[in-house]
Specification:
The complex is a heterodimer of chains A (about 675) and B (about 170). Among the domains of chain A are: about 150 residues; about 100 residues. Helices cover about 60% and strands about 10% of the residues of chain A. Chain A contains 21 helices and ten strands. In chain A, strands 2, 3, 4, 5, 6 and 7 form a six-stranded antiparallel β-sheet that branches. In chain A, a hairpin with a 4-residue loop joins strand 6 and strand 7. In chain A, helix 5 packs antiparallel against helix 7 and helix 11 packs antiparallel against helix 14. Chain A starts with a helix and ends in an 8-residue tail after the last helix. With about 170 residues, chain B is mainly alpha-helical. Among the domains of chain B are: about 60 residues, no CATH class; about 25 residues. Chain B contains six helices and no strands. The two termini of chain B are about 30 Å apart. The chains are: A alpha+beta (about 675), B mainly alpha (about 170). The interface between A and B is large, with 117 and 87 residues.
Amino acid sequence: MQIFGAYALLLAFVFAAYGALAGIAGLSLKRSRLIASAERAYLMIFPAVIAAAICLLGLILHNDFSVAYIAEHSNRALPLYYKIAVLWSGQEGSLLFWTLLLSGYGFIALLSSGRKHPQLRPLVAVILSSITTFFLLLNNFVASPFSTIPVGTPADGSGLNPLLQFTQMDIHPPILYLGYIGFTIPFAFALAALIKRMPGDRWIQVTRLWTMIAWAFLTVGIVLGGYWAYKVLGWGGYWAWDPVENAAFLPWLTGTAFLHSVMMQEKRGMLKIWNVGLIFATFFLTIFGDFLTRSGIVSSVHAFAQSAIGNYFVVFLSLLAAVCLFVFFQNRAMLRGDNQLESTVSRESGFLFNNFILLVMAFAILWGTIFPVLSEAIQGEKITVGPEFFDRINIPLFLFLLFLTGVGPLLAWRRTSLGSLRRNFLIPAVAGVLTAAGLIAGGMRDPYPLVSFGLCAFVLVIIAMEFARGARVIARRGRSLPAALVHLTMRNTRRYGGYIIHVGIILMAIGITGAAFNKDVEAPMPYLASMHIGPYQLISQSYTQDDNPNVSSEAEIIEVRENGRYLATMYPARRFYKASNQAQSIVAIRSRPLEDLYLVYAGDDPNTQTPILHAYLNPLIMWIWIGTLVMVFGTLVALLPSRKAEAARPAAETARQTAAESQEVPVGA
Amino acid sequence: MGRSRIMLSLLLVLAAGSVALRGDADFGARARRLGQQLICTCGCTQGALVCNHVGCPVVTQMRAEISARAQSTDSDALILQSFVQEYGTQVLAVPTRQGFNLVAWIMPWVALGLGLIAALFFIQRWRLRPAAATPSPASVPPPPVEGIRAEIAAELERELGSGRRP
């Protein structure tokens, strides 16, 4: 099976290389049969990579420790569901998994979107073949998952990294990869359209659709990563501005900017150069993120071990940049847009500022991420750029972005009168100010949370008013309010889906702002000792132990009381993973809408051997997860086709309606 | 302002107020303040107060040192410098604001300033540019926001009045 898998990968490489070379030759010589054969070769990559992935999975499930990758990342006692995660838990396997998803995405995109764009299809196939060739080159000749151990087969493997033995790890990497890799498709279509000198409006739709899909996956992937960190790493938080976390956030920011600015191109023919630049930058950042994770040049709990594979990525990124810049400068004449603005107070300006803030945030995060490497190269000393740096720069920018999220729907395309803005501004602004006033009355003094909660109220009221206006008209006809809301939303899914996504962003912002009020206490907890955190009393009741072939564990039994009333029993634990000889804390969380009580068994006091309990009180965190679900729902709504009464609309009103429909809200932050 | 709007505003205020009352932050100890400025040097890249790796060879000693030095009369800067001497510059959670490290702090704000200038430049340039000669849907006179909303409402009325079901 190992030989079959290796050959399947080699075959996939041959298909990819042929697809790229034959495609380029066919397009240059205008040989249609050569072009067609290149496309077919590209479509064969996916089945070949599937075969290789199935082989590797089969070898993992059969505990074939003659394969070095499996010996390093699995063991006999590992439960089945974690054995599946072995597929992407190490460098070689995760690269194969990347290639699998990349070829799968390309397969679907070429058969669906490619059919609608026959002019672009051959070129898209060549671009995708070229990118896939790079990854298959790594799979076959640099980091093969099928390499065998030269001498002797171990009786058992070293086991899966304990940090990865959690249910979330069966979901988080595939979803995150679907986000990362998904941006390859809009990149391929954008580059193909640019090479073909195709006017913007025809290819921009397919690019936008695939960007939305990738963006949604990346959003969920990033949040699942945060959820994993929160549940597994046991430091009480979900985001540490770790280089690898930042690497995932960067394409999210540029992708979000694109989803907003692309509407300027669709509605007004503006920002064509900018949009192509954003798509290129987003794809470039996904590969850069992969490079950061795999090269080991930055220290991260999420990174793979340091390896020479980074050099290959540097070469690929350089080639990529060279090709993109060359094509861009060769064809920039076709990207000249109708950039014309009637008023500064317009939606166009709103989008411009939105893009500007997102890009500055992306730059600041990229700068902070690579600065330790720069510092080491220039000063010879590696420094740390920790969360405080990123918080100081990004919090004010994020608050301004939140403000723009609210203002956007109040701005019309082309021109908005100040009087109109003032009238629409009044009620949301009052809600925002009242919220901030209520918080001050409640004792809050920190300016950032005050502004953040005030802005959240401001934006939520604006969105609620937008829904209420439309739904009221429908409800007047005797429909119930929920039915009216559904009708309204389905009439223009992109617009109202965008609003729903913004609601999700606001809920996340509420959850993130809660971090300003985090508390924690650490103390030794012998039998029947107690400690207090916030309104809770924690009483150490006893200990419990468990043992199975994979892990042994010991847990504290902590009784939680509030005002003397029993609330719950929690079991913060420590596990010892036998195969890897590693210990790991297992967090106990009592999650409620207002706050999470988060308990960590932090080890034993070295002098007294008394167990130490670290308790955290994290307000509002649940809203981050709820907000993400709302964002996913909003994206699904935005992806649905709208049910518009096109037939019933008089022809004379079409132009005016176009202007009205252009009130759409972008999908994204 | 309608009754529903007043209710909504009140609900927001109450919800926010209840959170604020429960969120009485408990910061302020010197050791904690110092600890937040230091990183565990075991390689985990987590804060000295955050690292919770079971059996971490560094953090227990670091915390003891932070606690002990916080008792001294030395200034915060001096104490942090003593950690730098012991563990290297990597122990500081953020770059210092001296020498080359100052560039780390300045560059994002330079980017913000340059970006702002660029955004304003383009807005001004596009405002001065004459409208395209070819008529397009975008060149239809723009209705004000209220006009657009009234139009959507009227269209909904027509659509529902004609007996169309969603």
